[in-house]
Amino acid sequence: MTETWNFINTGSNDPYYNMAFDEALLNFVSRGEIDPVIRFYTWNPATLSVGYFQRLTKEIDTAKVKALGYGLIRRQTGGRGVLHDKELTYSVIVPESHPNMPSTITEAYRVISEGLLEGFKLLGFDAYFAIPRSEEEREKLKQPRSAVCFDAPSWYELVVEGRKIAGSAQVRQKGVILQHGSLLQDVDIDELFDLFIFKNDRLKDKMKQAFVDKAVAINDIAERHISIAEMESAFEAGFKKGLDIEFKPLKLTPSQLQEVDELIIKYKSDEWNYRK
């Protein structure tokens, strides 16, 4: 019997709304108000999001972010910095107790990412999961070399032609798994690296080259230009197939929308964004 999950595409919004909405969905699922949910969204303005544990002022050139007109926000998930610009962002919110969800983060990540894998296949890519095999590779995962998210494939990262094509992060709170991530349509690598602080230019250039070697956007390798609308269609179908689910549209109640608004205040605050 195929299970039915909620689906919502909130379109293009500012960073405060985007992060508040994800946290609100986690709360609704936690309280049993809604079934598991998959959400798609995009960003306006383009925004640099930093991981929950990142030291913002030590790792990010905040003046540069501001000068370029980008948004800046701290996520509730861990991981490193991501520039959300030409991309489709997804989030999956599901109870930890769900029968199809493994108890370990890594294995749950693999199950959820089956939806992404199928989406990439529908777009015509030969995508697969990267699994670090050697002890050395596994050790490297524990010591990320830079503050930039797409710098290294981790467990079950999605890879096309040997390069990482999706960056995701997961958090577990209140008995709920929240996994969200970036599906890059295009990326401007020079612009991305200008937003981070490096000890010197040599190190910056080295990291930039490592990034080029390890990460790729959809339109870097697609035979034709793929639009966000095409990505939305492919990944919606991909999640249905990969997770063996159907979708019903999610419509929030007035009180749920009010909760989103209240969380927006938190995400706009310096106390949250500059907490580290």
TrEMBL record:
Known EC number: 2.3.1.181
Presence of keyword Ligase: yes
Single GO biological process annotation from the record: protein lipoylation
One annotated GO molecular function: ligase activity
One Pfam family named in its UniProt record: LplA-B_cat
Domain BPL/LPL catalytic residues, every copy: 32-247
Subunit structure: Monomer.
PANTHER family, per the entry: OCTANOYL-[GCVH]:PROTEIN N-OCTANOYLTRANSFERASE (PTHR43679:SF2), OCTANOYLTRANSFERASE LIPM-RELATED (PTHR43679)
Protein name stated in the entry: Octanoyltransferase LipM
Gene source species: Staphylococcus arlettae
Organism taxonomic ancestry: Bacteria, Bacillati, Bacillota, Bacilli, Bacillales
